[in-house]
Every structure is written in C-alpha cells, then in structure tokens.
Design brief:
- 39% of the residues lie in helices and 15% in strands.
- The chain has 343 residues and is of the alpha/beta class.
- Helix 1 crosses helix 4, helix 3 packs across helix 9 and helix 3 crosses helix 13.
- The longest helix has 20 residues.
- It starts with a helix and ends in a 28-residue tail after the last helix.
- The N terminus is likely disordered.
Length: 343
Amino acid sequence: MKLSLFKLAAGLALAALSGVPAFAQGQSTLDKIKARGQITCGTSEGVPGFSLQDAKGVWRGFDTDVCRALAAAIFNDQDKASYLSLSSKNRLVALQSGEIDVLARTTTWSLSRDIGQGIAFTAVNYYDGQGFIVRKKLNVNTVKDLNGASICVAQGTTTELNLADYGRTNNIKFETVAFATLEETVAAYEAGRCDAYTTDLSSLAGTRGKLQKPEEHILLQDVISKEPLGPWVRKNDQAWFDLVRWTVFAMIDAEELGVTQANVDDMIKNSQNPEVRRLLGVESKFGESLGLTNDWAVRIIKAVGNYGESFDRHFGPKSSNSQPRALNRLWTQGGIQYAPPVR
C-alpha cells in the first residue's frame, strides 16, 4: 500500500480548518475499525525483529504483534490487520491525518511528540538505547574516538537529535549525513559514505547481520540515550487510547501471571488466582469497559502469546535477531518492565 500524500494533506487541511482532528469529526476510532472490518497499522520500512516482511510478503515482528493482538482483541482474528510501511520522516504525519489507526513502529516517547503534535504515547513495549556500528579497521573503541567522523543517520528521528546533543555535551564534532529512509541510510554506511551508523541498539544487531560482510563491523559498547518505544495513537479518543494501552499491558500481565498460549484454556477453567481470573474475564467485565467482550485478553494470548513469548519469538536465541532481554525483563526478574494490574 502506498502512502497518499494527497490524502495526508487533505486530512491535515481539514483538521486545521475545523479546529478539530479529522478523526474526531465522526465515529470513534474503534467504531471505524469495526465498520471497516480491519485495523490499519503504521509499521517500519523493515527493522529486523520489530517489523519485517517475510518471503511471502507478510509482516512479522515484535511491533506487528501489537497489531495482531489488537485485531485478535477486536475481531478474534489476528489477520484482520493491514500494514502501511512508513519512513521515520512521514510516520507521524500518517498518524495525525488518520491514514493509520495506530503507529506500532519503533518511535521514541518524548516530550515534544507527546504534547505538541496531536498524538499520544500509550505504553512502553521495548526499552532501548542509541548505539553505533563501525568498521573494525577504524580501530574505534568508544564513541568519543569518532571525533571528526562522519555518521550516517535517518532523518526525522530522535537519533539525529541525540547525536547532536552528545557532540555538544562532550565537545565532539560529528559530520552528520542524514537520509530520508532507513534503507538509504544503511546502504550509505555500507558503501563507505560514512565512518559509522547510529540508531537504536536493538536495530543495529539486525542491521549488522544483513551487511554483506558482517564480520568486518562491530557494535560499540556505548549507549548514549534512553529510547522508550511503543505504540502511538491520536489524541482526543480516550477509548481507543485505553484499548491500545491495555492490549500491551495484558500481554505483560499475562507473562507475570504465567498465562501462555499453551495453558490459557486450562487457566480459564482451573485457575483460582483472582488476578488471572480478572485478566481472562472469568470474574470481571473489563472487556465491556473497553468496548469488547470480556474474554478480550484470552483472544490476545491465544493469537500472539504473552509478552515474553512474543519477545522470545522475535529476539530470543533461536530468532534471527537475538537480543539480550536486559531492561525488558519483568520487574520480578531484575528488569523494569511491568504493567498495572487488571482490577
């Protein structure tokens, strides 16, 4: 699906003239999705582990699991989700204009995005940080060794801003070489147009693996930023915000409570844990409060599993983009990831 610049411009113009966001002038986002029969998700241009098309053209990844979970919660069918590939430069415009229902794409939560662009961050599904990849032959050990070096970076990202901040803070001069798309940025680095390439650490490992000679490149150990990532929605639609947020939370709570794809049916029948029973809709009506049926979380877990199952599928040791879970471990396991209780 191609992004229509005309539709984006028209949507923004309408919102500006009316003083009301285009999506808010009629049905709620959830009502529109139900009427349409599918959810439209904004995704990346292809980030290993997060969102990447497989050999059959099907989008797979940790972020696209959020979209599948939403489709399962709403329609009991994880395949009722379509995906719009967006660059860093146009991803927020697509959400603002109503071209997509949710932006489930590596997009950092920051103050300027949260308060001034008509969009709202829902929940952190991945704690990340910015890193660097360089060629071994440069004999570079730390970011500070890159003083005077040229750095490839994608336009319209916090990555670009973080690089400038780091340079100012540490009195280091970088020659920033920015590109409109991720593909162009990686291609420029591999072609030798830059000494280094910087982006989120989670993406760098996958990028290294796709280079023609990955053994000639190394990831520096420095982490220069905080990058809390997760899905975004438009503001002024509280019901849709709540549903997207609690879809992420339901997956996290399910892992903490030990509810999995394999045992969820047994848990429904036999668990006496009140937290489990509330999550699975056995003793509560929280699903109705979200505009769904009370087994909404059951459908999510059956479709994509709990948070840990999704993480392991896309970043685990058997995946093509293995990543340490690190901060994304549950709070009970030494990480900082946890969700509010369902009660």
